[in-house]
Write a structure and sequence with these properties.
mainly alpha
Length: 434
């Protein structure tokens, strides 16, 4: 039977460098999308709400929509799925798998707590740790599936998500039609039925959820300039919605599908950089050719319809298809870079960022909230969309420089050390020895 001594943290020599590098790329890439949530109100998807929707601001929105929307998150989730296999394969399990399972679920239990703290106390509504902990407990059960079945499971989940999005679109379209008809009757002075009055109210509520009026933006900006405890209370309802309704409506299908795909990609050698250069080149070319074409058509449709609420909803018909192919293009590109031997210093820095992913992810929140919220420099809503990427560049540079320096002297990042110590219920050795 496996003893507790069999289950130990991963030694540095056991790490898969390619996984660390791509995790570093994904971690830094996630900030490209998250930065709008840190610095602007309701501007993540819709640039007309805040931050500007013309000139360089529009150009930046185009680039992020084409290349990065959903793709960095997908890569990060894939790597978490691959990590489930790596973690549970470190030791021979006992006959019923109790020991390694106990360690794994303890690890996720602490991640769930970290996610709650990250959301409610560190004030990042878009945090992903809580979702990874919840969904990871389910993904764990599929770790022994063969790659083919994992891919099939992933595709089924993504199809279910797309069907739900299609249903949402037609519901919204029906509501908009009903409300428009009711408004015409109202303008003519005719008496409306309860259903017609209700349709107008429901549409107005939908518009309020998605489109921010200038005065609403001003109110939100002012709320973000207040003291820490005021912001905690202000963001409480949004944070609760993100970790409940949003999790089970959107994140669940997204994260579980990507975790299963990540397991498959690890098992068939893609994430281990074991496939040929030709394979990764085809993965890059086909992925970008299909993914960017789909993303371009979606983005063009939104712009052509003046960022209308229905246009955004319709773009989700093919959202997962476009981002999966684009993500595969990214993975192929990164793997070619890893196998090329070019820019070794950058590869080492990215691997270090990936090894310290939890620390660097939380660091994004601490740095950005210090810059944008009232208890720091109160820059929320004051930068245009394109200007936010100066902040991103600064954070990237800092983490690419500091992460390898830190790992030169220490075995883990600070939060990785805390997480491992709590997981194994034993204080881990932090400093490197000769």
């Amino acid at each position: 039977m496996t003893t507790q001594e069999n289950i130990k943290p991963t030694h540095l020599r056991e790490r898969i460098n390619s996984v660390d590098v791509i995790r570093g790329v994904a971690l830094l890439g996630i900030l490209l999308m998250n930065i709008t949530g840190f610095g602007l109100y309701k501007a993540y998807m819709d640039p007309t709400n805040a931050g500007g929707a013309t000139g360089w601001n529009l150009n930046v929105w185009w680039v992020t929509n084409l290349f990065f929307e959903g793709t960095m998150r997908a890569m990060f989730s894939m790597l978490f799925g691959a990590g489930i296999i790596l973690f549970t394969s470190k030791a021979i399990e006992s006959s019923n798998g109790v020991t390694v399972t106990d360690a794994f679920f303890r690890r996720l239990g602490w991640m769930l707590i970290f996610g709650i703290i990250h959301c409610y106390l560190l004030l990042w509504s878009g945090e992903i740790l809580y979702a990874y902990a919840i969904v990871g407990m389910i993904a764990f059960n599929f770790r022994h599936w063969v790659p083919k079945n994992l891919i099939i499971g992933s595709v089924i989940l993504l199809c279910l998500s797309s069907f739900w999005s299609i249903k949402d679109y037609y519901s919204l379209k029906s509501l908009a039609t009903s409300a428009a008809t009711a408004m015409e009757k109202k303008d003519k002075g005719l008496i409306l039925s309860k259903e017609e009055t209700a349709s107008i109210g429901k549409l107005e509520e939908k518009v309020k959820e998605n489109k921010a009026k200038p005065e609403e933006v001003d109110e939100e900006n002012a709320a973000m300039y207040k003291d820490y405890f005021s912001i905690v209370l202000h963001k409480g309802p949004e944070n609760q919605w993100m970790q409940t309704t949003f999790l089970y409506r959107y994140n669940f299908f997204d994260v579980l599908a990507m975790m299963l795909m990540g397991m498959a990609f690890l098992r068939n050698g893609i994430l281990r950089a074991e496939r040929s250069n030709r394979f990764y080149l085809l993965m890059m070319v086909i992925g970008y050719a299909l993914g960017l074409t789909i993303n371009y058509l979606e983005t063009s449709y939104i712009v052509a319809h003046n960022f209308d609420m229905l246009a955004f909803s319709r773009s989700f018909f093919t959202y997962d298809l476009g981002r999966i192919f684009t993500t595969c293009g990214h993975i192929g590109t990164v793997m070619l870079f890893i196998k090329s031997g070019w820019l070794v210093f950058l590869k080492k820095s990215l691997a270090a960022v990936g090894q310290m992913a939890l620390t660097n992810y939380i660091m994004h929140t601490i740095i950005c909230n210090t810059i944008f919220l009232g208890f720091g420099f109160a820059m929320f809503g004051k930068l245009q969309r394109y200007e936010l990427y100066y902040v991103v560049g600064g954070i990237w540079l800092f983490q690419l420089v500091v992460s390898p320096i830190w790992l030169r002297y220490y075995r883990f990042g600070p939060l990785e050390w805390v997480w491992r110590s709590l997981t194994y219920w034993e204080r881990q050795s932090m400093k490197k020895t000769a």
